[in-house]
Amino acid sequence: MLLTFCLCLLALLPFSTPLTTLKTINTTSPLIQPSNNDFNCVPTWSLRPNTVNTRVCGGAIVLLPSSHAVGDFHYGPPPDRYELPIIKQYSYCRVVVELMSGFASEESSWLGVGVAASNLNIACGKTSQEMGYKNGWTNAGEHDGIRITLEWAKPLPPGLLGGGSNGTTVGAVA
Prior knowledge:
This protein is 23% helix and 29% strand. It is an alpha+beta fold. The protein has helices spanning 2-11, 19-22, 54-61, 110-127, and strands spanning 40-43, 70-75, 83-84, 86-90, 93-99, 105-109, 133-140, 146-152, 161-163, 169-171.
């Protein structure tokens, strides 16, 4: 609930706010913010199909878990709230959270992942001048071992929810 409130506040930031102020959140832990501040965005310069915008991706981001508890994100057993990959979709934007190649696990919190995803969404929106973007990615976690990707996805039929046994879930909202 706190993450949802914070993400709503981020959405209210004026678009004239310099990008550098969006990337300088002072924290005492690398588990709250991506330590590299490296946002990779593939912009598009026209409103056309297969692009996403910050408003729609914000809807996908708020579907992520929001716990501030720190844990080891990992693939495979044991099934728990830190098992990856996890996929959430809202309308035509999908957020994918997975481990980087070469990482067996990575320490972070869902709050840290959500903040990184929100910062990526804002950075990509600014890069594309709010015209939409094709996709973007950044890393999070103590050693940047968690990859967060925002990407265009074909909208799912209204009300469709699917999931796997490992907690991977795709949720669509009409």
